[in-house]
C-alpha cells in the first residue's frame, strides 16, 4: 500500500474482492496464472481530497499486455425476497462497482474519502517466457506528478489451460441490440455491433449461442410482442410455404468466425408451458404479415402443418452448412408440472419432423424421467434430484433464482466469490455445461420498454439487480461488467481443475476440493481468500508436476 503526504492511498486488490466506497479493501500483492488464461486484478485508490483527471500508469515487462478499465458504480435497488444473509451491504439499496468502462480511464475523477478502483486485465501472448513479473503502478496528475505508487507481482506459469469441454451459453437478446445501438436487425450495421458482442461473449468463455429462427418467445407479455428478430424468411404460397435460409447461414458463419461452436435454435412454442406459437412473420400476397403468435394455439393443425414443412427443411439446411450435430432445439422455456400434457404434445410434433436433440431449461425431474427432454438444463437448486437418480448429463442454469440457500448466482450485490465459485461447482458436480437467460436483456419486465442499464439494473423493478445482463451498451460496442469477468475466471478455474485432473486424476482433485470445503452446490467457504487460496494451490500443484517432469528429462 502507498500513501503520500497528499493523503493518497493506492493498493493492489484481488479480483475476488469488490471495492466498496466505504470499506477498506483487502490488499493482495501477487497472484499466478497459466498460459491461455486472461488474468485479472484491481488497483484501488482513495484520496482525502477531490482530484480531477488523474490517471493510473503501469510499467514493467508485462505493462504492454495490460488493459485498465474504470469500475463504475451501479445502483442496487432490488434484492430478492427470499435472499439469504450472504449479500454485500446486507442486501440494502446501495452502490456496487459493476460496469468496466474505457472512456475515462485516463481521466479519473476521484471523490474525497471514497475507495474506487480500476480493473486490470492481463493477457500475455503465446511464446512469452514464464516467470515472476513485477508490475509498477503510479497514480498521476494531468501535469505528470506522481501522487502515489504500488506494485503487483504476477507469476506466469508455463502450463496451458485446456479447452473447455462444457457447453456454455447466455442468451443473447437481439431486439435489445437493435434498441440500444439504433441498428437494423441483421443488416450491415447490426453485424458491426454484433461482432463486438460476440468477441466479448467468447472471451468470457461462452461457446453456444441462441439463434433466433423466429422472434424468441421469451419474457413477453401474453398477447404482446417483442421487436421482430427473425432469421428465417418465409413466403406463403398457394402450394404451402417457401423458406429462405440465407440469413440464417450468414448468421451462423459470422458467429463461427467469432468463436461460437454450438447453436441453440430458438423456442418453437411460447414460454412457461408452450401453450401458444411464437411470433412468426411471412410474406403473404406480397405483404409481410404475422402468421403465428399468441392467438394461435400450439396444438393447432395450422401450426402442425407449418412445422411439418419447416423442420425437415431446416434440418437439411443445417446439414448443408455442416452444423447439424452442433445444434439443439428448444420447445418451451421453464415448463412446470402443470404443463406436462401440453409439453408432451409439443415434443411429439417436433420429434415427428426433426431428430435434433431437445434442450430445455426446467426444474422438474418428471419431464426428463418421462423422456421429454434429451438434454435438460436444470435449475441449480433442483440438480440434486437428477444426480440422486443417476442422471449426470445435465447443464446447470441460474436465473432470478435461486437467490437464497447460498447458491451461486450473479447478482450485482453478491460477493465476488459467490459468483466465481460456479466454475468449481461445474467441475465438482460433473455437469455438462451452464445456461443463463440474460446476456444483454436491457428491457423492462416482459419487454414492454427498453431500459438504460447504467441507471436501472433490475428490469424496472422486476428482477434482482444484474440478473438480466452482464454487459452494458457503449457506442458501437459494449462494456463488460465486473460480474462477466468473474464468470470468465470461474470458467478458467474449471479448466485449471481439468488440467490438474490430467496430471493427478479426478479422484485426487475431488479430494482436494472436499478437503478445502467445496462439496455440492451450497457447501463452500464464504470467503474470497479461500477461493483465491484454492486456485493458487491448484496452480502450485500444476507447476510442481511440471518441474518434476523437467527434472526427469
Tell me what you see in this structure.
- The chain has 553 residues and is of the alpha/beta class.
- The chain has helices at 174-181, 188-204, 246-257, 301-321, 340-353, 365-369, 383-388, 416-420, 422-429, 482-504, 506-515, 528-552; strands spanning 2-3, 8-14, 30-35, 39-47, 51-59, 66-76, 94-101, 108-110, 116-122, 131-140, 146-160, 167-170, 208-211, 233-237, 240-244, 262-265, 280-284, 287-292, 327-329, 359-362, 375-379, 395-398, 433-436, 471-474, 477-480.
- The protein is globular, with a radius of gyration of 25 Å.
Architecture blueprint of SSEs:
Elements: E1 2-3, E2 8-14, E3 30-35, E4 39-47, E5 51-59, E6 66-76, E7 94-101, E8 108-110, E9 116-122, E10 131-140, E11 146-160, E12 167-170, H1 174-181, H2 188-204, E13 208-211, E14 233-237, E15 240-244, H3 246-257, E16 262-265, E17 280-284, E18 287-292, H4 301-321, E19 327-329, H5 340-353, E20 359-362, H6 365-369, E21 375-379, H7 383-388, E22 395-398, H8 416-420, H9 422-429, E23 433-436, E24 471-474, E25 477-480, H10 482-504, H11 506-515, H12 528-552
Parallel strand pairs: 3-11, 12-23, 13-16, 14-17, 16-19, 20-21, 21-22, 22-23
Antiparallel strand pairs: 1-2, 2-4, 4-9, 5-8, 5-10, 6-7, 6-9, 10-11, 14-15, 17-18, 24-25
Helix pairs in contact: 4-5, 9-10, 10-11, 10-12
Amino acid at each position: 500500500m502507498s500513501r503520500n503526504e497528499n493523503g493518497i492511498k493506492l493498493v493492489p486488490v484481488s479480483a475476488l474482492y469488490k471495492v466498496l466506497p466505504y470499506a477498506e479493501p483487502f490488499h493482495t500483492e501477487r497472484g499466478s496464472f497459466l498460459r491461455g488464461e486472461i488474468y485479472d486484478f484491481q488497483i484501488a485508490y482513495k484520496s482525502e481530497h477531490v482530484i480531477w483527471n488523474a490517471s493510473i500508469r503501469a510499467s514493467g515487462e508485462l505493462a504492454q499486455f495490460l488493459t485498465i478499465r474504470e469500475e463504475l458504480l451501479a445502483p442496487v435497488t432490488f434484492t430478492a425476497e427470499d435472499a439469504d444473509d450472504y449479500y454485500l451491504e446486507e442486501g440494502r439499496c446501495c452502490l456496487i462497482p459493476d460496469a468496466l468502462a474505457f472512456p475515462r480511464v485516463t481521466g479519473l475523477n476521484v471523490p474525497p474519502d471514497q475507495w474506487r478502483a480500476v480493473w486490470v486485465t492481463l493477457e500475455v501472448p503465446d511464446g512469452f517466457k514464464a516467470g515472476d513479473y513485477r508490475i509498477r503502478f503510479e497514480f498521476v496528475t494531468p501535469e505528470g506528478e506522481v501522487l502515489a505508487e504500488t506494485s503487483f507481482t504476477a507469476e506466469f506459469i508455463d502450463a496451458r489451460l485446456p479447452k473447455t469441454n462444457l457447453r456454455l451459453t447466455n442468451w443473447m437478446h437481439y431486439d435489445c441490440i437493435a434498441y440500444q445501438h439504433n441498428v437494423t436487425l441483421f443488416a450491415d450495421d447490426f453485424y458491426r455491433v454484433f461482432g463486438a458482442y460476440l468477441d466479448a461473449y467468447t472471451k468470457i468463455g461462452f461457446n453456444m449461442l441462441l439463434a433466433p429462427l423466429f422472434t424468441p418467445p421469451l419474457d413477453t407479455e401474453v398477447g404482446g410482442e417483442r421487436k421482430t428478430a427473425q432469421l428465417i424468411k418465409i413466403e406463403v404460397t398457394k402450394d404451402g410455404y417457401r423458406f429462405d435460409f440465407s440469413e440464417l447461414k450468414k448468421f451462423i458463419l459470422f458467429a463461427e468466425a467469432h468463436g461460437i461452436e454450438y447453436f441453440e435454435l430458438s423456442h418453437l412454442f411460447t414460454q412457461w408451458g408452450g401453450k401458444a406459437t411464437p411470433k412468426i412473420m411471412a410474406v403473404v400476397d406480397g405483404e409481410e404479415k404475422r402468421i403465428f403468435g399468441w392467438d394461435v394455439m400450439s396444438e393447432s393443425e395450422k401450426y402442425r402443418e407449418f412445422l411439418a414443412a419447416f423442420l425437415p427443411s431446416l434440418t437439411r439446411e443445417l446439414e448443408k452448412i455442416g452444423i447439424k450435430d452442433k445444434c439443439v432445439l428448444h420447445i418451451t422455456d421453464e415448463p412446470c408440472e402443470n404443463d406436462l400434457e401440453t409439453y408432451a404434445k409439443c415434443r411429439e410434433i417436433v420429434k415427428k419432423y426433426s431428430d435434433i436433440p431437445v434442450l430445455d431449461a426446467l426444474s422438474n425431474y418428471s419431464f426428463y424421467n418421462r423422456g421429454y427432454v434429451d438434454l435438460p438444463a436444470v435449475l441449480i437448486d433442483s440438480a440434486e434430484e437428477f444426480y440422486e437418480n443417476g442422471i449426470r448429463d445435465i447443464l446447470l442454469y441460474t436465473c432470478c433464482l435461486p437467490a437464497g440457500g447460498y447458491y451461486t448466482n450473479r447478482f450485482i450485490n453478491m460477493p465476488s466469490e459467490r459468483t466465481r465459485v460456479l466454475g468449481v461447482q461445474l467441475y465438482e458436480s460433473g455437469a455438462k455445461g451452464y445456461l443463463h437467460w440474460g446476456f444483454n436483456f436491457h428491457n423492462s419486465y416482459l419487454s414492454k420498454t427498453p431500459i438504460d442499464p447504467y441507471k436501472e439494473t433490475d428490469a424496472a423493478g422486476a428482477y434482482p439487480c444484474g440478473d438480466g445482463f452482464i454487459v452494458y451498451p457503449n457506442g458501437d460496442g459494449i462494456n463488460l461488467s465486473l460480474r462477466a469477468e468473474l464468470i470468465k475466471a470461474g470458467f478458467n478455474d474449471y479448466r485449471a481443475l481439468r488440467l490438474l485432473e490430467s496430471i493427478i486424476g479426478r479422484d485426487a482433485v475431488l479430494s482436494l476440493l472436499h478437503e478445502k470445503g467445496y462439496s455440492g452446490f451450497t457447501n463452500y467457504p464464504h470467503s474470497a481468500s479461500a477461493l483465491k487460496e484454492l486456485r493458487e494451490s491448484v496452480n502450485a500443484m500444476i507447476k510442481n508436476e511440471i518441474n518434476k517432469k523437467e527434472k526427469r528429462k
